[in-house]
Amino acid sequence: MIPGGYKKHFPVMLNEVLQSLAPQDGKVYVDATFGNGGYTEAILKAADCKVIALDRDPNVIPRAEELKSLYGSRFEFRPGQFGNFAELVSEQIDGAVFDIGVSSMQLDEAGRGFSFSKDAPLDMRMSCSGTSAADIVNNTAEKDLADLIFKYGEEKKSRRIAARIVEVRQNKPIQTTKELAEIIYSVIHKTPNAIDPATRTFQALRIAVNNELEELENGLEGAARRLNPGGKLVVVSFHSLEDRIVKTFFKNNAGPRRHVSRYRPQTETMDSDSLFAECSKAIVPSRQETEINKRSRSAKLRFAVKR
To answer: What is the pTM of this model?
Structure first.
C-alpha cells in the first residue's frame, strides 16, 4: 500500500507511453494526470530528467510526497487541473503525458462514487469540491438530463432513463450509486457478456461533473504551447469522445499530409508550417496487457512531435 491507503497500479500502456515520449537526461517532462504516479515514476527511472506532476485530486498528495522524498529536486507536484496547463506550467518543457478519465485509485475508493460496482454516495468529483453527480441527477430538468446522458454517454435510451430518474426523484432524492444503477436497470435489463447498462450513464455524469472534455481541449492547447521544438505530446484516452478530441486537435495543428513513410507506418510527416512535425495514428494496447488489465481494453494512445 502507498501513503493514503491506495494500492499500487500498473499504468495503462506504460511501455508504449515511454517509447513515444522517449525520456532523455536533462530534459523536463509533465505528467498532466498524476493519479497514482505510475507514469511519473517510470519517466524518472527511464532518464536523469525532471518531472512536473499535475492533479486536481487532493487525495494524491501523500503519493506525491513519497516520490518527492525519493527523487528530490527531480520531481515537483503542482496541484490543479490540467485544463489550466499553461498557467500551472510557465516554463518550456520537452514532453507531456495525459492519461484521460477516472484513475484506478479513484475507482477503487468506494466513497468517491465513481463506480456502480460499489454502493457509495453519488459523488464523482475528482477535485472533491463543487457540483456532484447527485446534484445533477436530482436538480437537472428532464430534457437537459436526457441530452447530457446522450451527449456524454452516447446512450440511445437516454430519454427513457431521464424520465425514470425524474419519476423516482419526485418521491425521494437519489443519493447513492446503487440507487441510480437500479433505476437504469429498470429501463435497460442486464444481459450476460454485454456491457453493463449503467456504464454509459455513469460515464456521462462523470464527464459532466468534472467538465472533462473542455478540460482536455484546454489542456492539449496549453501543453502544445509549452513544448520545445521536438517535444512530445502523448495522450492515452479511453472512449470515443476523448479520442475524437485528441485526433481532431492533432489533425488541426498538423497541416496537410505530405508524405507517409512505409518504414514508419505509425506516423505521418507534415508540412513545415504546421505546429506538429509528426502525429501518430491510434496505438492500442497489446493483447497481453488487455488480458491482464481490463481497464486497458478501450485505451488508445496518440502522440505528436512539435515542429
So the answer is: 0.85
